[in-house]
Amino acid sequence: MTADPEFAIQTHGLSKRYGRVDALSDLSLGVPSGTIYGFLGPNGAGKTTTIRMLLGFVRPSSGTARVLGHDCWRDGVAARSRLGYLVAGDALYPDMTGAALLDFAAALSGQPPTAQLHLLNALELGGNALDRRLGTYSKGMRQKLALVAAMQHDPEILILDEPTDGLDPLIQRTFEEVVRALRDRGRTVFMSSHDLPEVERLCETVAIVRDGRLLTEESISDLQRRHRREAVVVFREMPTVDLSTIAGVATSRVDGRRAVLAIEGEIVPLLRALASFDIVDLLLPPPRLEDIFLGFYGPEELGVLDGQSPLGAPVPPDLAGAIR
Fold first, then answer.
1. CA dihedral over 208, 143, 315, 21, signed as positive or negative
2. Residue 258 above 50 pLDDT?
C-alpha cells in the first residue's frame, strides 16, 4: 500500500488471528488528516485489536497499517513519535504522583509538554491533586490525568479508546471542546467510544465494525440520510386507516391518539398522507446514531437492555482477552 498524504491513518487488508479466532479480517480504512473519526462496534468487534496494531504493539497476521505514512509495525518508532495515545486510567502506576506520571509521559513522548497547563485547567485537575499518589485518585481523576498525559505534547494524531469513561457530564463537554479545538488546528483524532451521543456530537465520519469486519465507513450525515428515521404524530382523533400502509412507513405503534412511525426512504409520501388528517403535533427528529446501530445489529444480537448502551454486549470470558 502506497501512503497517501491526505490520510493520517490508513489500513489495507488489515487482519489479526489468535489461533483459530479471527479478531480482525481484511480491514481497510482511510482517516483524513484534520478530522475527528469514530471507530465503533460492540465489545469483541475488533476495535482494541485494531488500535494495538496502529500503535505497533501487535503484529498483523496480514495487511498493513500506516500512521502519517509510516508502517506501524516495521517503522513503529517513527509512527508513534507524532502520536498521542490514551492509556486506560486503571493501568496507571498507583505509586506515582500525578506530577511524576505526567513527567514520565512527557519523557516517553520525547516532546515538551506545551499544552499541559492548559489541559490541567480545562479538565479541572488542580495542583494539589498532582502531588498525590495515583492510588488515591478516583476513577474520574485518573481518566483526566490519562487524557492530559495523552495530549500534553500536542501530537499530530490522537488515538482515544473510551476517552470520557468516568468523567462527569460538565467535564465531558469541556473535553469535547478541547478535541474540537485540536481538529480546528489540523490535528487528527481517532476515537472509539460506547457513548453514541458523544460520537454523534464530535465525529464527522465513523467506521462500524462487526465480528472483526468493516460494515460501513461513512459520514454521520450520510448515515442519517440512508437509515430509518422515526416520526411521532399526535392526532386530534385517531384515524381508522392502518398507518403502516402509507408508502415509506415500515412499522407503526399506536398509543391512544399518538402514533410512532418508522420511516424508510423519502418523507414526502407520509407528509402527503397526513395532510388529510387533523393533526395536533408532528415531530420528525433526525435519526440517532443509536438507532442506526440497532439497524446494523438488532437488539437481540447486541443484548440491549433498558438503559444499557447498544454497544455494551458482553464477550464470552474465554475469548475476551483475544478479541477485544
1. positive
2. yes
